[in-house]
Specification:
The chain is of the alpha/beta class. 25% of the residues lie in helices and 29% in strands. The protein is built from 12 helices and 25 strands. Strands 3-2-1-7-18 form a 5-stranded parallel beta sheet. Helix 1 packs parallel to helix 8. The structure holds flavin-adenine dinucleotide and nicotinamide-adenine-dinucleotide (NAD). The site of flavin-adenine dinucleotide has 34 residues, from helix 1, helix 2, strand 4 and helix 8.
Amino acid sequence: MRIVVVGGVAAGMSAASRARRQSPDVQVTVFERGDWVSYGACGLPYVIGGEVEDFGRLVARTPGQLRDRDIDVRLRQEVTGVDATARTVTVRDRETGRTLTEPYDRLLLATGVSPVRPPWAVTSLAGVHVLRDLPDGQAIEASLEGAKQACIVGAGYIGLEMAEALSTRGLEVTLLEKGPEVAGRMLDVGLQRRVRAEVERQGVDVRCGVTVEGLTGKEGRVTGVDTDGGHVPADLVVVAVGVRPNTDLTRAAGVRLGETGAVAANDRQETSVEGVYAAGDNTESRHRVTGRAVHIPLGLTANRMGRVAGVNMAGGEARFPGIVGTAIFKTFGLGVARTGLTQAEAEHAGLDALSVDVDSTDHAGYYRGAAPIHVRLTAERGSGRLLGAQLLGHTGSVKRVDVVAALLHRGGSVGDLFELDLAYAPPFSSVWDVLLVAADRAG
Ligand code: FAD
Ligand code: NAD
């Protein structure tokens, strides 16, 4: 059994490792077009910000360690074609330009996503970056030398994490967002405003509702960003305006894309073409709250899909359970978490939803270090079915979002949440934890 994996980061490497453990008889080959495999892209903003000492710390396993485990890792090898009838892939060696044809019995497409680059961002000016992979992080680090003013375009996950990282490195930061508020894809409006207020309080110049018109440069290096609201001087520009799934190979293989534009796969990660599997950021999943296909490209989802694909490709039986849209990030001292649906998303899905907001402290107010926490809990009117939660609070406190995520997986109600025996002692929570207070109010 020859298993070929395309893409060697989260989904691809999880699949390769899992297939190897599932069966000693399979032959596992991973083709990665870049220089790096098996690393945590999620850590990139923290290396740039100086929280993590170097990029090498993000590597989970080196190619040598993977080869020791009998996984044939081939770097700088780009898969350029798939013949699903002959069951072969065409691979181009990026160093020599030579191509080879490799047979497979099972093929996994774990090709991830690419950052969106608006036309103005396609430039040869130095100092203009996206942040997707490890070399992007290294390039930003190199551009920091002598840089004083950064302009980040896009106030989503990467924009908000990088606002902190670049401020920490001493740069003046301007954050430009085309939508009416920051974090627009993650939170309801009131919470978006709170995130913006915190980022502004930290000295970031946040400008929303802005259209970028172009970049300016001098002697080959960026000098600023032209917008419909004026010129923003910058010697470092980070473009973080979203991602789109890498689907070229799927099209070549005749694999069906889903309604989200990402690859459609069943819960065994099988695509519409026999013998071809898909996993990770390039693949859509089923949202357990709405039952609909969604494309929410995140780390745990990629790893889990890869694991499921690896087991199944090697002859085992595993199923991807779907997701509930849980996500978390921090910007400066503020932790932001969400799961399920926001009020706006619930309404968009045609649900009759209500939300309650609770402001409290993350632990007993009389115990040192108590910090504000805000919970917005969303439920279905009438039935009380939990639909989602959004939390803002001091960094780690918002991880309690996982309690709601667990209930969402099981179709729980606000009554179920209110009944939970949650841990309590003054340094950790109030006796009635803020989640219980929210559940009581929503019930
Ligand atoms: P990718 O990581 O994109 O890997 C795909 C690989 O396939 C790439 O290395 C690419 O070179 C290779 N490839 C593509 N096409 C070919 C081809 N034709 N031939 C050979 N190789 C090919 N998620 C979270 O849940 N939490 C976080 O805190 C978080 N932080 C993040 C921070 C940053 C800065 C970034 C960029 C992402 C973050 N994510 C986070 C998202 C997370 O990193 C991704 O969900 C995860 O990396 C997806 O893994 P993947 O294997 O599906 O795709
Ligand atoms: P994103 O979708 O989170 O945010 C993009 C932002 O850019 C949005 O607010 C959007 O309105 C804005 N935008 C779009 N076009 C624009 C334009 N022309 N001008 C100005 N603003 C514009 O995408 P991202 O921040 O690029 O992150 C990419 C992916 O990385 C995310 O989808 C997520 O999967 C992953 N990620 C996750 C985490 C985390 O979970 N903590 C952290 C970093 C990255």
